[in-house]
From TrEMBL:
Residues 94-215 form the PX domain. This is Sorting nexin-7. Coiled coil: none annotated. The keyword Transport applies. Heterodimer; heterodimerizes with SNX4. It is a peripheral membrane protein. It comes from Pteropus alecto. GO terms for cellular component: early endosome membrane; phagophore assembly site. It is found in: Early endosome membrane. GO terms for molecular function: phosphatidylinositol binding. PROSITE patterns: PX (PS50195).
Length: 473
């Protein structure tokens, strides 16, 4: 947990300004307004009809920005302040720039995979140089994400794109798939670079700087297969055991995550369907222009009018194509990223609960030991004295372990609370900006199409007036 206590003055913890790669500023009002924990779930997060055909979801008064806020204030003992994670406001001085580009396909006798070039420019003193260029494949990104989760179990690690992004795609290495993944991988790395704690992780530095063969050797330095299996079995056992008394703030967080997951998944489905319907409309409208051109060739009296209609349709087709591009590049990736974030948040809460469950099990074991000692009483037998001594040593061991786990739980809780507030600000600004940009794009689209047809109708009206005046004696 040492990495979660680091806060370098060289790194700004201010949230990054929204850029072309989708990074978002931190700011704006809190996502939730505190009305007390009892009323938290009574709020209408997004008044979505369960019927997916009801597209009026986007016109509802309620929104993700209107949810109640979890109070960030939680009493902590003075001794716990050493473990408190604080993301203080500092000047936004970006000192790490990462670009993912130039995908290359590699074919071997065993597999086919894509590597991406990663260019890093930095002014940080802990780096040996200011410029680095390496190539990484998707499995390397998975390794990095796993190492970050291992080092910071209760920080919100940015999501990676799924192994297969485009549903129903036959060829997973076509250009659209590769470009979509490239953008998502770049956003993943930049999210980490802009995080006040993750950005200083040693494995992140190794990922950005060492060559492929060096990275392979670092991967082999992790725990062995048996150790990993043991950790997995232990985690499953703690998960099955559950947590007896989760703090109220984390109960509210868990309730929020469940609601958020339902709503953002529904928004993702609706957004995907809107895009599909827009694509069908564009394909159909694109056929009307050539039809009117052919029609004008057989109607001499209407040739100019039909050609004008074909021109208007062509203009509207171009505007529709531009709007579809904005939808697929601006709105859909943001919504889907937060679908993945909802899964990340569930994993974070599960890891926090596992840490607390481990503490609860040790406390319970110590309680049973003390109860057994009270029932057994004292005995003059030498053998009994040795047993009592051994049990006393075990109680001392449990007491020490409980002290360590209490510190671990407190550090994990403080890390999650601090990162939770940061994530909420990012989420609020990302979603707000994505929908605002899409709304502005729609307004521009309809204004352009309306102006096109109004201009055409005006020209036809003027032409009709001229013809009428010529016919008069």
């Amino acid at each position: 947990m040492e990495g979660e206590r680091r806060a370098s003055p060289e790194r700004s913890s201010g949230l990054p300004a929204r850029g072309a790669d989708g990074e978002s500023p931190g700011g704006g009002g809190p996502l939730l307004r505190s009305r007390g924990s009892s009323a938290l779930l009574q709020v209408d997060v997004l008044d979505l009809d369960e019927d997916e055909d009801d597209l009026e979801v986007f016109s509802k008064d309620a929104s993700l920005m209107d949810m109640n806020s979890f109070s960030p204030m939680m009493p902590t003992s003075p001794l716990s302040m050493i473990n408190q994670v604080k993301f203080e406001d500092e000047p936004d001085l970006k000192d790490l720039f990462i670009t993912v580009d130039e995908p290359e396909s590699h074919v071997t006798t065993i597999e086919t995979f894509i590597t991406y070039r990663i260019i890093t420019k930095t002014s940080r003193g802990e780096f040996d140089s200011s410029d680095f260029e390496v190539r990484r494949r998707y499995q390397d990104f998975l390794w990095l994400k796993g190492k970050l989760e291992e080092a910071h179990p209760t920080l919100i690690i940015p999501p990676l794109p799924e192994k297969f992004i485009v549903r129903g795609m036959v060829e997973r290495f076509n250009d659209d798939f590769i470009e979509t993944r490239r953008k998502a991988l770049q956003k993943f790395l930049n999210r980490i670079a802009d995080h006040p704690t993750l950005t200083f992780n040693e494995d992140f530095k190794i990922f950005l700087t060492v060559q492929a063969w060096e990275l392979s050797s670092h991967k082999k330095q992790g725990p062995g297969l048996l150790s990993k299996m043991g950790q997995t079995v232990r985690a499953v056992a703690l998960s099955m055991r559950g947590v007896k008394s989760r703090p109220q703030q984390f109960m509210e967080m868990n309730d929020f995550i469940e609601i958020f997951s339902q709503k953002i998944n529904l928004i993702d489905k609706i957004s995907q369907r809107i895009y599909k319907e827009e694509r069908d409309y564009f394909d159909e409208m694109r056929e009307y222009g050539p039809i009117h051109i052919l029609w004008s060739a057989s109607e001499d009296d209407l040739a100019d009018t039909l050609s004008g209609v074909a021109s208007c349709i062509d203009t509207c087709c171009k505007a529709t194509e531009k709007r579809m591009s904005g939808l697929s590049e601006a709105l859909l990736p943001v919504v889907h990223e937060y679908v993945l974030y909802s899964e990340i948040l569930m994993g974070v809460m599960k890891r926090r609960d596992q840490i607390q469950a481990e503490l609860d099990s040790k406390v319970e074991a110590l309680t049973y030991k003390k109860a057994d000692a009270d029932l057994t009483g004292s005995s003059e037998s030498l053998d009994c004295e040795e047993v009592v001594l051994e049990e006393s040593r075990f109680e001392i061991y449990l007491t020490e372990e409980i002290g360590k786990l209490e510190d671990k739980v407190e550090c994990a809780n403080n890390a999650l609370k601090a990162d939770w507030e940061r994530w909420k600000q990012n989420m609020q600004n990302d979603i707000k900006s994505a929908f605002a940009d899409m709304a502005e794009e729609n307004i521009h689209y309809y204004e352009q199409c309306l102006a096109t047809w109004e201009s055409f109708l005006t020209s036809q009206t003027d032409l009709h007036s001229e013809e009428t005046s010529e016919d008069k004696p």
